[in-house]
Amino acid sequence: MFKPLALAAAVSAVFSLQASAATQLTVYTALEAEQLKSYKQAFEKANPDIEIKWVRDSTGIITAKLLAEKERPQADAVWGLAASSLAILDQNGMLEAYAPKDLGKISPNYRDAANPPAWVGMDVWAATICFNTVEAEKQGLSKPVSWQDLTKPEYKGKIVMPNPASSGTGFLDVSAWLQTYGEPQGWAYMDALHQNIGQYVHSGSKPCKLAAAGEFPIGISFEYPAVQLKRQGAPLDIVLPKEGLGWEIEATALIKGSPKADAAKRLADFSASPAAMELYKENFAVLAAPGIAKPQTELPADYEQRLIKNDFAWASKNRDQILAEWRKRYDGKSEKVAQQ
Amino acid sequence: MTLPLTHGNDRPRNGVALGHRLFVVGGKSLLLSLLVLAVLLPLLAIFWRGFSAEAGQGGGLLAARELFASANFHWLLGNSLSVALTVAAIVVPLAYLFAYALQRTLIPAKGLWRGISLLPLLAPSMLPAIALVYLFGNQGLLRGLLSDNIYGFWGIVLGEAIYTFPHALMILLSALSLADARLFDAASSMGAGPARAFFSITWPATRQAVFAAFCLVFTLTITDFGVPVVVGGDYQVLALEAYKAVVGQQQFGRGALIGMVLLVPALLSFAVDAWLRRRQGEAMSGRAQVFEPKPSKLRDGCYLAIVLLVCAALLAVIGMAVYSSLVKFWPYNLSLSLKHYMFEDTAGGGWLAYRNSVTMAIGTALIGSVVIFTGAYLMEKTQGQRLLNQLLRLLSFIPMAVPGLVLGLGYVFFFNLNGNPLHVFYGSMALLVVCTISHYLTTAQMTATTALRQLDGEFEAAALSLKAPLYKHFVRVTVPICLPTLLDIIRYLFVSAMTTVSAAIFLYSPDTILAAVAVLNMDDAGNVGGAAAMSTLILLTSAAASLLLAGASRGLLRRSQAWRQRAPGY
């Protein structure tokens, strides 16, 4: 008598357990590793029935991974990837357009123009020069204040910048110089800068790390590692060149064909919500939703005004051509030096 | 060639024959299908990618012609070749002298030197390069010793030399481990000096291993991007170009094309290896006496000096990397702390990644060693199925030349293909194990083959003439004889699995993230100290496993390898 009853109870218990078990959402991200914990906690607190599984890597690798998996996507959503990368995924028809609940609060510059948008911005990161004051004194270097300053002969071999072919931050720099100076002058500027480059590296934050460690006194990087390293006590000055800063949007998108589309949409809702902006403001000075950001003491109050007018459509469309030209000119630097 | 026995034509009786054929033909067929699935098809997926002219992917015949004709490509190819040739020219002679010192001289503390020389195997390949930057970079400890900083050609050569040294050493140690004392006795009784004896006995018996080691170092160097990424500066190489094309530009086609170019050295060395094989007789007969070196102060002194020099250099490099993981903020705050080891506070995988790596390494070592050693035995020691043998040899030679990144991408293309029933394995631990075994197949197999080739074919002939099925002979005779080699293979696979990153980076899922990937993630996130700490943890784990296996090896040697000693009273 008892046995079937106990069995039924056990079975129903298992089912109810399964029903209450959280949906696992696979989320690809290029966010800085130390940001992930608080973002995940906040989202799961607001959505207790969903659990985030992160796949984190640098912008280039995550983008390459998503493209490689085009036929059979593994990710349900992307939370924190460069908008220019998301634009490439969108061109490949891999994104599910969706208008999150708080889309109205997002500034129109910081979202995909289509309606509903393929991606929605979170925050902005921008070009920054990291300048090591201890090494500058040792080597008698003056502090640069503009992009043009970096072409002075005194910096020969002292500057590191990310290779645009592998780094999203590197591409952001090149695209910004071409837009600020116009194409022929932009390349002429890079020709001059090239004479001073000690090394092109493959990640956007590495130049700042190298500058912080004094390995090379000047690093062309972005503001997040600069602020973090300065807070850790690195002897850095954060230089924001007066001609204006190239920048990029960190954004959220849904992957087309995900079997967990409903949960993914709730992630997109959360990512655009004021609660999420409260999280982003701890790390970034410019947010996609205006009026929430607080100034960071390491950065000037007019930081957002220093961003250049950035044409993402142009940059995304000409990406291959720009990279080909860049590689033709500067890749294989040692060869040209040897031939001179 | 002119063996008195015609055992190839001997047909064992029915019951035995069935088991025999099942072992030989079945084993080879199973191995072939595994290799087809784990090596060939993923590679074909790369070829398909390389020649498909999908827009923006940099692939297709037109793009191929353009790439191969460009000055930039020629420059990269020239750089890759000169780095790989320089590294091989430095590492192989050095590793030969080192192996000779350990196997054929009476220098003291051989176990210690051997342990130190294998240290670079125990950590991710970026570790020696990072250490070189800390030693010879602009803020390096020994910066004053060099006129220019380390970045560039010599940085890559030094880093790769350290990274490949133990790989070459493993092959040469194995080749020099067996020698027939009777030949040396005969030589000295005929008045031949040590030099004469070396060139007429030792060199002919080991030159094929030297060639194998040369090929291995060459292809390992030409396909590695870990060292050039860290210490190459603007001196670029092909493997790095493939990495950049795929990761930075999402040009899978271009990456696949360069990957194909990097396959050429492996195919060439396969051809030469096959040619050398035909010329090489069997070195060790069933009646061999184990060679014992005679004391010589001068010889041992010279070799000890070489060994000490190499070990000091290796220790300095590894020690520097470990030290840098303990420094708070290089170079401005040199106080020591364990803060980089607090993985809970930093994302990137942390302790889950570490546990996964240990699981993956155990799976790879156990499954891989059984499959690879059995396969090598079947290829070397059985008659017939020549075509099958050639095919197996070709397939198992290929992984050495495939950069891990390209292999990993091939796995993504193949196992994530629409309609592939094997898709369920995508992102699983099982696929990581398969991929890692495939990636490291060649060295393990070369080690097995080198040891097996030194066993006389008469052993098999004897087994067959006694009507003993081959699998029994294999389990009861060959495996015990080759146990030291087998344990070497297990150890090699374990540490390779602990340290691999390039193939796994495209294959892990959140549940199966690995420690070496976490190293990369942490480094990428700016947590260099954490990356160094995780590397050190990998190093310690690999070292502990190696010591454990070495202990087991010693215990087993005492029990099953007594035949290597001279008979008492001889």
Automatic annotation (TrEMBL), chain A:
Organism whose genome encodes this protein: Pseudomonas soli
Signal peptide (from-to): 1-21
Record GO cellular component, one term: outer membrane-bounded periplasmic space
One Pfam family hit: SBP_bac_6
Any one GO biological process: thiamine transport
GO molecular function: metal ion binding; thiamine binding; thiamine pyrophosphate binding
Annotated keywords: Iron, Metal-binding, Signal
Entry keyword Magnesium: no
Cross-referenced Gene3D superfamilies: Periplasmic binding protein-like II
Annotated protein name in UniProt: 2-aminoethylphosphonate ABC transporter substrate-binding protein
Key word Cell cycle present: no
Taxonomic placement: Bacteria, Pseudomonadati, Pseudomonadota, Gammaproteobacteria, Pseudomonadales
InterPro entries: ABC_2-AEP-bd, Ferric-bd
Binding-site list for Fe cation: 224
From TrEMBL, chain B:
Domain annotation ABC transmembrane type-1: ranges: 77-273, 354-549
Record field: transmembrane: 30-51, 75-99, 111-136, 151-173, 209-231, 251-276, 302-326, 358-379, 391-417, 423-443, 489-508, 528-550
Keyword annotations from UniProtKB, A to Z: Membrane, Transmembrane, Transmembrane helix, Transport
InterPro entries: AminoethylPonate_ABC_perm-1, MetI-like, MetI-like_sf
Main location: membrane
Subcellular location: Cell membrane
PROSITE patterns listed in its UniProt record: ABC_TM1
A GO-annotated cellular component: plasma membrane
Membrane topology: Multi-pass membrane protein
GO terms for biological process, alphabetical: transmembrane transport
SUPFAM superfamilies according to UniProt: MetI-like (SSF161098)
NCBIfam families documented for this protein: PhnU2
Protein family membership: Belongs to the binding-protein-dependent transport system permease family.
Protein name: Iron(III) transport system permease protein
Gene source species: Pseudomonas soli
